[in-house]
Amino acid sequence: MNPRPRIILLAVSAILVLFGNQSTSEAQTAPSTWRVNGVSFADFANRMSKSIEGTIPGMPFYGANQTPGAAFVPLDFRYAADNVPASPITTQPMSKVGFWASWTVDLNDDNIWLYAIPGSALETEFTRRNEIRRCSNQTIDNGQPAFGPASCNSSGGSGSRGDSSLGGARYVGYATVAVLRSCGVVIVNTQLSTHSPRSAGLDPQPDAISESRSLASKYAKDIMQKLLVAFDQVCTFGPTYPTYTPTPTPTPAPTYSPTPAPTPSPSPLATPAQVGMLKLVTYYNHQHNDSVTLSSDDAIRGAGAGGYTFSGDAGGYVFSGQALGTVPLKLYYNSSIGDYFTTATAEGERSAVAAGYRFVRVEGYVFSSYQPLTVPLKLFWSANRSDNLTIATPEGETGALNSGYSFVRVEGHIPKSLPSAPVACGLGVRWDEYEDGWTGLWQRRGNSDIFDSIWTGPAGQRASAVMSIGMVGDQVTVQRTQPNGGTCTYAGTLGVDGLSVTGSYYCSWWPNGGRTQWRASIRCS
User: In this model, does residue 132 exceed pLDDT 70?
Assistant: First the structure.
């Protein structure tokens, strides 16, 4: 499905201010020993311009539905983009997504020669020049500054009541990061503005305000990191700086109650054979470089609505209710760095809470120790992507290691396949289907292969079509016909349970081709 475009306004301003913008008295206080002899201002400016230019294509959302009016001078650059996947995804559904960014680069010079601050003097200069004032428009974030002692970061957020003309509640998140380097001070400002659809209510929610603030802070730090990499490649006269690792922004505790477990645990605990099972799957968000492992319908719908796409099976099944020998598999989320974390160990829970993650829901239950016919569910971590990945397939483990992830621990053990497959019922009477954030109900016409289908989108949109379904062995084909004559072709594979189908599809009206993932559960009655 293709949900209607959303619009968030995310404003970003990055300003690199160096001695050239300092007052005359302050510039004159720079010791003459800081002058870099033999390096002219003009030559250095030209090399810095080329280095900054190389980072532009990698800036957040650059080139994504870009709007006219961009400035293409690398040292004084701005651009805008619409319909970007920057909205909060764990609090309230958002709509209307847009992005704007700008930055300016000035050099530390006396109009002839370059000046460079020694590394040992950076922290002192940051204090002497009162550079922390750059972050004074918002509340200074708790904890250590993200980029070291010669830096500061601040953030804030607000919400206002929606109205009938603009939709639901409106939210604004904003952040500032300032970093002093040998060749000058780098300043980044971000602003995230959005509103929820009217169906989500008119009153702003504290969690959505907090997440808007956290996302603004994340994009400010991401842009700062890219600018510093380019800046330090040219300004080689200072110390070697540590690589930036995203630091979680403190997030107030949620005001809502966590989603309960999928099925209340029976008392006393049932045997595994008495409890239903759910397939564990993985989704991935290319914008946030984030993996998520989940099984519940609520989580899958939320992942699709938040820009995540189906990656594949995680390697087995989880129990829908707690059985003897099992522990809950819990999903956590850190909105500051945009990372989901699925864990079933006490150590995992402690590390999640300590790092600022909040509990979302129980995805199912897994064995705490090895059992016959089970495989280990392993946790991997990528510091470069700030991403946790929980997976149980050899292919997933190899892919993680090849992508720079490191093994952390075994979170539990899961059955690789269903212990005893239920009796399949062919095409059944109804299919419950999920695709691209949309939920479909396909109702069969008698004993024919024709189904009448209705979908509901993430913002309440509705769509309908007629489906013709064929099944040969475990191979499933579906032909979808829209009311306007458009067609979509689905291909899928029937699971070992005879009741689940996963695959991909494409539609005739998609201009750029490509395929989208889908999954369905067959109902026998």
Answer: yes
